[in-house]
Automatic annotation (TrEMBL), chain A:
GO cellular component: plasma membrane
Pfam families named in the record: BPD_transp_1 (PF00528)
Compartment(s): Cell membrane
UniProtKB keywords: Cell membrane, Membrane, Transmembrane, Transmembrane helix, Transport
Record has Membrane as a keyword: yes
Family statement: Belongs to the binding-protein-dependent transport system permease family.
Regions that span the bilayer: 29-51, 90-115, 127-149, 161-181, 214-237, 261-282
BP GO annotations: transmembrane transport
Originating species: Caldilineaceae bacterium SB0664_bin_27
Predominant location: membrane
Protein name (record): Carbohydrate ABC transporter permease
Source species, domain of life: Bacteria
Record-annotated ABC transmembrane type-1 domain positions: 92-282
UniProtKB/TrEMBL annotation, chain B:
Record-annotated ABC transmembrane type-1 domain positions: 94-305
Recorded topology in the membrane: Multi-pass membrane protein
Protein name: Sugar ABC transporter permease
Cited PROSITE patterns: ABC_TM1
Keyword Cell membrane: yes
Species in which this protein is naturally found: Caldilineaceae bacterium SB0664_bin_27
Signal peptide: none
Lineage start: Bacteria, Bacillati, Chloroflexota, Caldilineae, Caldilineales
Keyword Cytoplasm: no
Main location per the UniProt record: membrane
Similarity section: Belongs to the binding-protein-dependent transport system permease family.
UniProt xrefs under InterPro entries: ABC_transporter_permease, MetI-like, MetI-like_sf
Keywords on record: Cell membrane, Membrane, Transmembrane, Transmembrane helix, Transport
Length: 297, 315
């Protein structure tokens, strides 16, 4: 919002402070300070998280409580990395496997689906698309118990496959990519067709590179969703060696929560790092992605 | 869509030839369709049959059975549904769910809108900086946030009570109190989800053409007036979208209530109740019935919100 008052000629003898007051810039400064305060308030819990993870077991429960550790130590981190005490390293591997699998499969199936539902002709295409879209109307909670039974019949309980399988396709992703492919000129498709390209070739060589912006936005959403997922992995996995990171945090809280809460904090810090890295790398794509989705989400 | 055009409901004289012609063209169009599209369609159909149609059907079937995973399922008719209406735990869970959902959404979205409005007054670089800070809790795994807040909420030695007593206010029991636990959890969820609303609303506000505000200013409109008359109507689609998504999200919120158990049943929502029925009490039929009731309620709420929005939009 540019203030028109800025361009108005002011009487010459005026102090910078008075000009600042008159032009209304001070309201912006106040807004800025309020935002700064709230961003600190919102960040405050993370400061506790970080500092607590460097405390000793005696320090973290001592009263009066202090923000900074009395003695800085990496003991909590060593504790959670120790395979005999916590299975955090294994959970890391499990989480990375499931998350990578989910992101890759969703990106492939969504971009293919977007192209196929937007550009290719076959009988029942639109019925199929609206069916896929309508599955989002049923909340996951309603499917929870019966889906568990189906997974049991398929012998996928207590395996990472069982966590991955229900998220191979994403109806939201297909919808998003279809919208995006509609924005790609039809002539590109027709020209490639005339040149003798097959449909898969067109997908591979034209559509896939052009849908990259929407795919990188989708990738972040899918990554966060898969990495942070709790309920479905909780239902499917129970063997300690198969757990994903959010589940292992809960297990660690049960194990260390009473006396060694700093271990829970250290584990939490380690678990938060991958999503943070992904966000920082793809931040630009992410903000652009929100604008691209049209739906704003 | 062409199949619809081939299928005139009226116009009887075309009807005799139609079946032959239609079957021929569908078959021909199948032949003409690329194998790529057909293979993909088959795959997506199989996928949704396994993870959607079969489970959904099973869920509906299960809601009319009594099953504990071990003995054979027994058909009980509508008893699971009638049971829900007389089950005080169901009503309690419903009450907690609605309280949580209404407060989380109204408070969360208002704060997000306020923040987005304030952020729209800030220049680009700082706007991005603040946005990132507000978005951090969204990125952080919810489980991490939950255990972190549990630690801060501790009655003795927790960060919040230390803060309260340092400014001379009485210490609070927070999660230990049946009255406060639900609201303490609500605050965690608002904090964790605030960033999403802010990002969406800010994108909406930034999309409003600058010229509209300029014109309003020339007409003598103040900040709040131009917010109420320009910004709010123009970002209403985003607002409604976010509201619908939030209702669906909050009703299904599980981790927060599962990992922060309030005293007694003071924080047991429908999501938690469904989970406990299915995986703790092993009362699968009743659990399926409750989850179907949740589905119907959410569907109703979504349709209601969208319809209300449409009326206001046309108006």
């Amino acid at each position: 919002m540019a203030t028109t008052a800025d361009s108005r000629p002011l009487p010459t003898p005026i102090s910078p402070f008075r000009r600042w007051l008159i032009t209304g810039k001070w309201t912006r400064a106040v807004v800025f300070l309020i935002l700064a305060f709230f961003s600190f308030a919102m960040f405050y819990p993370f400061i506790w998280l970080l500092f607590s993870s460097f405390k000793t077991g005696a320090d973290i429960v001592s009263l009066p409580v202090t923000l900074l550790p009395k003695k800085w130590t990496l003991g909590a981190y060593l504790m959670v990395m120790d395979p005999t005490r916590a299975n955090l390293p294994i959970a890391y591997v499990n989480s990375i496997i499931v998350t990578t699998g989910t992101v890759i499969s969703v990106l492939i199936t969504s971009s293919m689906g977007g192209f196929i539902f937007a550009r290719l002709e076959f009988p029942g295409r639109d019925y199929l698309f609206y069916f896929v879209l309508s599955t989002t109307m049923v909340p996951f909670l309603t499917l929870l118990i019966p889906l568990y039974i189906v997974m049991r019949e398929l012998n996928l309980l207590n395996s990472l496959w069982g966590v991955w399988v229900p998220s191979i396709f994403s109806s939201f992703g297909v919808f998003l990519c279809r919208q995006f492919v509609y924005g790609i000129p039809r002539e590109l498709y027709d020209a490639a067709k005339i040149d003798g390209s097959g449909d898969f070739g067109i997908y591979r060589n034209i559509i896939l590179p052009l849908t990259k912006p929407i795919l990188s936005a989708l990738a972040i959403f899918v990554f966060l969703g898969a990495f942070n997922a709790y309920l479905w992995p909780l239902v499917i996995l129970n063997e300690e060696k198969k757990l994903t990171l959010p589940l292992i945090i809960a297990r660690m809280a049960n194990r260390f929560g009473g006396t060694d809460y700093q271990a829970v904090m250290a584990g939490s810090v380690l678990v938060s790092i991958p999503p943070l890295i992904v966000f920082l790398i793809f931040q630009k794509n992410f903000v652009r992605g929100i604008a691209l989705t049209g739906l704003k989400g | 869509m062409t199949t619809l055009q081939d299928h005139p409901v009226s116009g009887g004289q075309m009807l005799p030839q139609l079946p032959v012609a239609r079957r021929d063209s569908v078959w021909r169009r199948f032949r003409r369709a690329s194998p790529f599209a057909l293979i993909y369609s088959a795959a997506i159909l199989i996928f949704y049959t396994i993870i959607f149609i079969i489970p959904f059907g099973t869920g509906i079937w299960l809601a009319f059975q009594n099953w504990d995973f071990i003995t054979n399922p027994k058909f009980v008719g509508l008893r699971n549904f009638t049971k829900a209406f007389t089950d005080q735990y169901f009503w309690q869970a419903l009450e907690k769910t609605i309280l949580f959902s209404v407060v989380e959404i109204s408070l969360g979205l208002s704060i997000a809108l306020l923040f987005a409005l304030a952020l729209s007054q800030i220049l680009g670089k700082w706007q991005n900086f603040y946005l990132s800070v507000y978005y951090l809790p969204v990125i952080t795994p919810l489980v991490v946030s939950i255990y972190l807040w549990r630690w801060l909420y501790r009655p003795t030695g927790g960060a919040f009570n230390t803060l309260l007593s340092s400014v001379g206010l009485p210490e609070q029991p927070f999660l230990a109190s049946p009255q406060q636990a639900l609201w303490a959890i609500t605050l965690v969820v608002i904090w964790a989800h605030l960033g999403t609303g802010i990002v969406l609303f800010l994108a909406g506000i930034n999309d409003v053409p600058e010229s509209l505000f300029e014109a309003a200013r020339l007409d003598g409109a103040g900040f709040w007036q131009s917010f109420y008359r320009i910004t709010l109507p123009l970002i209403r689609p985003v607002l409604v979208y976010q509201m619908v998504v939030s209702v669906i999200g909050t009703v299904q919120m599980f981790e927060a209530f599962f990992l922060i158990p309030g005293p007694g049943f003071s924080t047991r929502t429908l999501a938690l109740y469904t989970y406990e029925l299915g995986f703790r009490a092993l009362n699968l039929g009743y659990g399926a019935a409750v989850s179907l009731i949740i589905f119907v309620m959410l569907l109703g709420a979504t349709v209601f919100q969208l319809r209300r929005w449409k009326i206001e939009w046309e108006h």
